[in-house]
Structure formats: C-alpha cells, structure tokens
C-alpha cells in the first residue's frame, strides 16, 4: 500500500510538471499612458507627460510640471488627451515610435529631451505622424526625428552652440521688437527655433508668450517639442510646402530638408549636411521596419 501511494504521488507530480510545460507562457504587454492613468487628485505633484483621469472620466495630459492644478481650469498646465494618441505604437492613432525605439535612436541624448515631453506635445498637432497609411505615419515620424537628430547632434544640444550668432536673431523692423533682449532669440529646441518673429509666431500659435519668454524653449521639454512640431506642421520655410505635407503627400524626405534649410543645403549648397540628414532618416526607418520611400535628396 505504501509503495502504491508513493507511486501515485510521483505520477501526480509528473502530471503537474507536464501541465506546466505544456501551458502557454503569459507575456506581459507594455502598458500605454491611459492604462496607467490614475484619477486626478488635487495637491498631488504631476510631472510633464503624466496622463490622469479626471473626475468626469475624461483624460488629461500634463503639459508642464504642476502641484495638482485642476485640468479643467489650468489649461496651460493640462491638455485634453485622447487615449488612442499616446506613445504606444500598438494602438490606433498612437505615435508610431515607442520609448524604447526613441532611446535607440538617441542613445546619447540630453536628459532634457524626454520622450514624455514629446508625447505631451503631440496634442498640439494631432495630425502629425497620424495621417495616411501606417507606412506614411512611420515615415513622417522618422523624417521629423531624423531632422531633429541632425539639428541637435543626436538630441545632445538644447541651444545653438555658436554664441557669436546670438545678437543676429533680433529683427528690430518688427513692430514688437525684441522685448527679451537683443541676444535672446538664438536657436533652441529640437529644430533650433530662432529669430524674434519665429518666437512670436510659434508662441501665438501655441498660446504661449515666447516673445517675452523665449527661455521656455530650453527649460520646458513639452514647449520645446511643441515649437519643433509648430515649424514642421505649419511652416514652409524656404521650401514650397510644410515638412508635414511633404511626407503625407509622398513628396519625399528631400522636400523636408528644403523646407528647413533650402538653398543653404539643397541644390548643391551643402551636400554633406544633406547626406547627414538622409543617413539619419535611413537609419530610423530601418529601425521602425519601414521603407524610406523615394526622393530622399534635395
């Protein structure tokens, strides 16, 4: 009897082991911003990029660090947030670059350039990297980040390094002048926003007084990313279309270069600079698993 009982126990143990081996492993999926969202609580400190669920069930994302200001009242600190639009590439409408991919793209990035700051800025231009086919969305995200990579040395530089240029960016022919000072409008941020008229225009579009407070572009990550998205989505620069339109209409990466630096780089102006941008774009599209498309050069 004892031997039979031991044998039965052994058989039961082997059965359990077999079940464990045959049972499929459970894999944890990466949680999106809304999956981790907690109900907003007054007096709680929230950092830029945090998504909260308000008392009415709607979601808001912190545009700036704040000590628990009411999202419905303090609209400079909070923006309404659509849960499909966060940084989870697996969800419809989400930014097609994950945080892990972002970190791969910019391994030496300055801590100022946070992924959460970029995600917080997306609400300002919801069509960005969210228009057209999946391929076009990925291509636009890669194109934007490739130009950013070139402009900032891999998201290393927050401000323009040539300080001798600083006094040149004040156009006093503008009726509003340069209230922050002659040398206050130097290049800042992912696309190196410069000139008093650009700070004025970007600030007006974003509802932020950048003409008087240009330093926000180098101290607030969400504001910094928003200025780059403002240029990308609304400005033609020396080109004939915005970089956003160039990508969603399949005009090619080369047209984004033309809209940013025109003849300074294109048409033989500086082929080395063009190649630097194109190489970054090819690297990023490869990382995202999408073809770069045609018309890469300008």
UniProtKB/TrEMBL annotation:
<dbReference type="GO" id="GO:0006032">
    <property type="term" value="P:chitin catabolic process"/>
</dbReference>
<dbReference type="InterPro" id="IPR016283">
    <property type="entry name" value="Glyco_hydro_19"/>
</dbReference>
<feature type="disulfide bond">
    <location>
        <begin position="170"/>
        <end position="178"/>
    </location>
</feature>
<keyword id="KW-0732">Signal</keyword>
<dbReference type="InterPro" id="IPR023346">
    <property type="entry name" value="Lysozyme-like_dom_sf"/>
</dbReference>
<dbReference type="InterPro" id="IPR000726">
    <property type="entry name" value="Glyco_hydro_19_cat"/>
</dbReference>
<keyword id="KW-1015">Disulfide bond</keyword>
<feature type="signal peptide">
    <location>
        <begin position="1"/>
        <end position="30"/>
    </location>
</feature>
<dbReference type="GO" id="GO:0004568">
    <property type="term" value="F:chitinase activity"/>
</dbReference>
<feature type="disulfide bond">
    <location>
        <begin position="266"/>
        <end position="298"/>
    </location>
</feature>
<feature type="active site" description="Proton donor">
    <location>
        <position position="151"/>
    </location>
</feature>
<dbReference type="GO" id="GO:0005975">
    <property type="term" value="P:carbohydrate metabolic process"/>
</dbReference>
<keyword id="KW-0611">Plant defense</keyword>
<dbReference type="GO" id="GO:0050832">
    <property type="term" value="P:defense response to fungus"/>
</dbReference>
<protein>
    <submittedName>
        <fullName>Chitinase</fullName>
    </submittedName>
</protein>
<dbReference type="Pfam" id="PF00182">
    <property type="entry name" value="Glyco_hydro_19"/>
</dbReference>
<dbReference type="GO" id="GO:0016998">
    <property type="term" value="P:cell wall macromolecule catabolic process"/>
</dbReference>
<feature type="domain" description="Glycoside hydrolase family 19 catalytic">
    <location>
        <begin position="100"/>
        <end position="298"/>
    </location>
</feature>
């Amino acid at each position: 009897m004892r031997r039979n009982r031991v044998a039965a126990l052994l058989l039961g143990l082997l059965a359990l082991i077999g079940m464990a081996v045959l049972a499929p492993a459970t894999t944890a999926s990466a949680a999106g911003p809304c999956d981790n969202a907690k109900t907003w609580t007054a007096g709680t400190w929230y950092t830029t990029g945090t998504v909260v669920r308000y008392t009415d069930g709607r979601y808001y994302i912190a545009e700036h660090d704040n000590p628990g200001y009411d999202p419905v009242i303090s609209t400079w600190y909070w923006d309404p947030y659509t849960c499909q639009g966060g940084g989870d590439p697996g969800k419809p409408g989400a930014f097609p670059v994950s945080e892990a991919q972002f970190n791969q793209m910019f391994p030496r990035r300055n801590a100022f350039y946070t992924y959460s700051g970029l995600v917080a800025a997306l609400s300002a231009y919801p069509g960005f990297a969210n228009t057209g086919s999946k391929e076009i969305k990925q291509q636009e995200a890669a194109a934007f980040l490739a130009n950013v990579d070139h402009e900032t040395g891999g998201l290393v530089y927050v401000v323009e390094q040539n300080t001798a240029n600083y006094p040149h960016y004040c156009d006093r022919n503008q009726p509003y002048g340069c209230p922050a000072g002659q040398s206050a409008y130097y290049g800042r941020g992912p696309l190196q926003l410069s000139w008093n008229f650009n700070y004025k225009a970007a600030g007006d579009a974003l509802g932020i007084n950048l003409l008087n407070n240009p330093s926000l572009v180098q101290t607030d990550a969400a504001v910094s990313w928003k200025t780059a998205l403002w240029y990308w989505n609304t400005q033609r620069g020396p080109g004939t279309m915005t970089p956003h339109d160039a990508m969603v209409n399949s005009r090619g990466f080369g047209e984004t270069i033309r809209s940013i630096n025109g003849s300074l780089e294109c048409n033989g102006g500086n082929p080395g600079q063009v190649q630097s941008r194109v190489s970054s774009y090819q690297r990023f599209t490869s990382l995202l698993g999408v073809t770069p498309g045609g018309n890469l050069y300008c």
